[in-house]
Amino acid sequence: MRRALELAALGEGRTRPNPVVGAVVARGEEVVGQGYHSRPGAPHAEVLALDQAGPAARGGDLYVNLEPCSHRGRTPPCTERIKAAGISRVFVSVGDPNPLVNGQGFAALREAGLLVEEGLLEANARVLNEVFFHWVTCGTPFVTLKLAMSMDGKIATTTGASRWITGIPARQLVQRLRRRNAAVLVGVNTVLADDPRLDLRELEGPQPLRVVLDTAARTPPDARLLRPPGRAVVVAGEQAPAERVRALEQAGAWVWTFPSAGGKVELLPLVEALAAQGVDSVLVEGGGEVAWSFLSQGLVHKVVFFYAPVVLGGSGAVCGVGGEGVDDPCSGLPLCDLSVETVGEDIVVTGYVRGETRG
Ligand SMILES: NC(=O)c1ccc[n+]([C@@H]2O[C@H](COP(=O)([O-])OP(=O)(O)OC[C@H]3O[C@@H](n4cnc5c(N)ncnc54)[C@H](OP(=O)(O)O)[C@@H]3O)[C@@H](O)[C@H]2O)c1
């Protein structure tokens, strides 16, 4: 199953809105077939693994990280193919919450007399497809907040400079995060300070939609994130000056206008509009004001905080999370399921926002 999960991860960022799935056919200890789902419409992992195994699949075991489908979508039901191949045991990490599958894949296999075991490496499989699970059950994007901070929690110095706080391996990991997300979002202050590209440049895969929160349409029309490849959306307030909006549109940006609350773009309608465009996942990359807005409005599901082995200091330096903050430490936003790893010289803390989120 570990191999099936590794194979599944090869499809990361390319199978949207489908899950990533890997499959292995084994006879005892010997692997006789393997495959992974590479893009929507392409054959499912189980079918590729069974094709590779050929007659050796008869009487063998199938390992797959997600419940095999039992309905005809763009491709025929995998359960039929598994039965026809003569597989005797099927090991699955986790059921598929998609209402078209949701237990029916397991039932179809058991009715045909196959032995089905669920729950192998389930936690790993859930993380791998966390975007898919959220999208099919909630219909809203799965939101990850990523920040690159100094050890004292600053994302920029007192001059606003932030390049580069973290090292090259951490930035490579950010490329993977961008590949996993359908959209990348920042506030206009970050665009003005850093002129980031926010694109995918070290890995192959579709470019994320780049989104800027920019009430007054202050994004410069020659900003790098407006340039191809990929598309950019400037999310402006309804009162944004028409000539700035026009200049941005002429520069190739998509400009969406939303009502603003307290002088800032309202986030919930934005998240809904992104969902309507099929955006299943958003990587919020800062800065501090935007981080607080998303967190305080209950719109973040996961955090990925990079900490570089450096202290920046400065009471005017930009904090990882700005805004008003909370009055009482007991009312801070609790995180759970934390994991810590080292990437190059930096530390990465990954965690989930505990309790109810709105999106
Ligand atoms: N190290 C890192 O990971 C990292 C990442 C990103 C940025 N940075 C640094 O962070 C600094 C910028 O951060 P920042 O906190 O000053 O600004 P920011 O979060 O980048 O942008 C905030 C601005 O976005 C606009 N906005 C529109 N709607 C909003 C909403 N609902 N919530 C929040 N903001 C909204 C507002 O400007 P309008 O009122 O004009 O719309 C607001 O002032 C820069 O120095 C940059 O280098 C570091």
Secondary structure elements and pairings:
Elements: H1 2-9, E1 22-27, E2 30-36, H2 45-53, E3 61-66, H3 78-85, E4 89-94, H4 104-111, E5 115-118, H5 122-128, H6 130-138, E6 142-150, E7 154-156, H7 168-180, E8 183-187, H8 188-194, E9 209-213, E10 232-237, H9 242-250, E11 254-258, E12 260-261, E13 264-265, H10 267-276, E14 281-284, H11 288-296, E15 302-308, E16 318-319, E17 335-343, E18 346-353
Parallel strand pairs: 3-4, 4-5, 6-14, 6-15, 8-9, 8-14, 9-10, 10-11
Antiparallel strand pairs: 1-2, 1-3, 7-16, 12-13, 15-18, 17-18
Bound molecules: NADP nicotinamide-adenine-dinucleotide phosphate.
NADP nicotinamide-adenine-dinucleotide phosphate binds at residues 147-148, 155-156, 160, 162, 165, 186-190, 193-194, 213-216, 218, 263-265, 267, 285-290, 293, 318, 322.
What would you say this structure looks like, in words?
The protein has 359 residues and is an alpha/beta fold. The protein has two domains: 2-131, Cytidine Deaminase, domain 2; 140-353, Dihydrofolate Reductase, subunit A, CATH 3.40.430.10. Helix content is 27%, strand content 27%. The chain contains eleven helices and 18 strands. The strands form four sheets. The protein has a nine-stranded mixed beta sheet. A five-stranded mixed beta sheet has the order 2-1-3-4-5. Strands 7-16 form a two-stranded antiparallel sheet. Strand 8, helix 8 (188-194) and strand 9 form a beta-alpha-beta unit. Helix 3 packs parallel to helix 4 (104-111). The longest helix has 13 residues, at 168-180. It is elongated and about 65 Å long. NADP nicotinamide-adenine-dinucleotide phosphate is lined by residues 147-148, 155-156, 160, 162, 165, 186-190, 193-194, 213-216, 218, 263-265, 267, 285-290, 293, 318, 322.
